[in-house]
Amino acid sequence: MVLRRDFLNGFALATVGALAPRWALGLDDAAPEKAPGYYPPALTGMRGSYEGSYAVAHDLRDGRFWQTAGAAADTGEEYDLIVVGGGISGLSAAHFFRQRAGRAARILVLDNHDDFGGHAKRNEFQDRGRVVIGYGGTFSIDSPAPYSAVAKGLIAELGIDVGRWERVVDGGLYSSLGLRRAVFFDKETFGADRLLPMPGRAGDGEGTDSASPGPDPWARFMAEAPLSEGAKRDLRRLHQERMDYMPGLSSAEKKARLARMSYARFLTDVAAADPGVLPFFQARPHSLYGVGIDAVPAQDAWGLGYPGFQGLGLDPAPGRGMNLDSIPNEEAESYFFHFPDGNASIARLLVRGLVPAAVPGRTAEDLVTARVDYSRLDEPGAPARLRLNSTVVRVGHRGPVSAASELEATYARGGKLRTVRGKKCILACWGTVVPYICPELPEAQKKALAYGVKVPIVYTNVLIGNWTSFQKLGVNHVYAPGGYHTGVNLDLPVSIGDYRCARTPEEPIVLHLVRTPCRPGLPARDQHRAGRLELQTTPFATFEREIRDQLGRILGPGGFDPARDIRAITVNRWAHGYAYQYNSLFDPFWLEGGELPCVAGRKPFGRISIANADAAAYSYTDAAIDQAHRAVGEVLA
Question: What is the three-class DSSP state of 374?
Fold first, then answer.
């Protein structure tokens, strides 16, 4: 229950007089980045795709925009390259283009948000004079498949030493305090509110078999979990017994069948598990797939290490149609690095290279605590400029595509239309947006671009004054399969440069909560569409109410009081989140072969090339970098 309201749209009332600045309310339309105090990372409340960032794009999509847009003013600006989209892919494209065309090349990057980075967003909080940093989107340098030479090269060029990971993370901090993973059963789904240690070795929010010495890790779970006796019995069986539920079939035949059934169906129809196990597993793949086990292939579940497959005798080689997320790869798993703000640090390093005056410092370490000067991002005369709060509504060739020597980009900023010209253009925005801003593309290419429905997801950061309740309860990560947020965890204990993580439970820390709105039973892309609509119509007040209620119920027995302990909330709402990755249950070409929509959609068109992770149907930073590199090669060919 919410006992009292500490927040008004995310701003702590304790900071009396610290009202939202004019630029955050859209009152300084001409050049909001020049306004005193302009610093988006410090904003709380609704972030990510916040209100106002997508209004123009939705009007364009719905056919309303040009009815009232008026004439565009010609800025007179000309560039060698115009990049649409200031995320990691767009910034990487600007970087690669400058490498090949020379530092004198004139580059303009346009983005509709008030901050750069795309999904790689930085959230900053202040607590008693201390800066606490969280990640609002892209989590880390990692990927299911090994980084390409190009992507690794860029990471190294930016000064990021991935090999230092073990030296910047205190990997044993939480375990030294007796904290471990747990599961929270909510009364709405399971009949009772109950927090229990996860039995066995914890994976992505769910345990597997354990041969650790000491008391049977399943004993408490079996005694106290609010599940039927049949469900508990079958959960243990699925984890611990080695049974072949598909006798008489070869490994290849089993994989072919598993690729065509959901994990939910495998559990009930093949493994004959009690249907009561389904709610327990349902949300396990949310953070990777954006859907539950009803829409995740059983073959992928096997690759991810979910229980029930250990007796099937499957050879370890990946089967046809597996999602890369589900294919183990030791080389890829060893290449990992996480900054306190996630991959926002990559975006900040790229901007430092393009516009050095805007980002102080010289190393990846001093970047962590550096404060970006947004007023320097778009200075006249600078060879590279980054223009925020500018929604591109049209990109087209000036004259016939085959003969045109330049393009024109039209963008909306502060309620007015403006145009710029360029010799080349890279569209590093979301793939589904491209057909609306580039209507001259071939219809087949537009259709291919529209295929990938981005995965909606919410990354919420909650600043709390201390985490003694976690210590008392003995947990650091909570899987909540029936909860509004299905994951709640303490921030990774990472210290880089002058930034120091919270090392004692009495210190302030960021909690990271994840929500992926789904509609179980629908095909994956339809679930994503429904989830997108839900997020776009959910106000911050609803998120805040759910956050306070859920944290109070999970942590209350440990002494947590939402009204007292929550200091700030930042909801990073990504209605258009992850790039859509193909699924053997719903995308026939992924199993049967044929041209992939992402390949057909990213074909160059005249002086225009297309980047972004959507162009690879692969929702990882290395894909964004690789697609930027390809696009630059195309425009310079």
Answer: helix
**What is the Cα–Cα distance from 282 to 76, expressed in whole angstroms?**
55
**Pairwise CA distance, residues 298 & 304, whole Å:** 10
Q: Which long-range contacts (CB under 8 A, 24 or more apart) does 2-7 make?
A: 2/545, 2/548, 2/549, 2/562, 2/563, 3/562, 3/563, 4/563, 6/563, 6/566, 7/45, 7/544, 7/566, 7/568, 7/569
Instruction: Give the pLDDT confidence score for residue 10 in this predicted structure.
Output: 33
| pLDDT (mean) for 611-621 | 97
pTM (two decimals): 0.93
Helix or strand run (H / E) with residue 123: strand 122-127
Q: Would you state the pLDDT for residue 29?
A: 56
pLDDT tens profile 303-347: 999 999 999 999 999 999 999 999 999 999 999 999 999 999 999
CB 289 within 8 A of CB 296: yes
Residue 175 CB neighbours (<10 A): 10
- Which pLDDT does position 72 carry in this prediction? 96
Instruction: State whether the Cα torsion 62-63-68-72 is positive or negative.
Output: positive
Tokens of 461: 């950061």
Q: pLDDT (tens digit, 9 = 90+) per residue, 194-233? A: 999 998 643 333 433 334 445 677 889 999 999 999 999 9
What is the C-alpha separation between 523 and 520, in angstroms, rounded?
8
Query: CA 26, 32, 37 angle in degrees (round to 5)?
Result: 100
Output the six-digit token pair for 74.
Answer: 């010609």
Nearest to 611 by CA among 587, 634, 578: 634
Instruction: Single out the residue of 302, 368, 382, 305 nearest to residue 122, CA to CA.
Output: 368
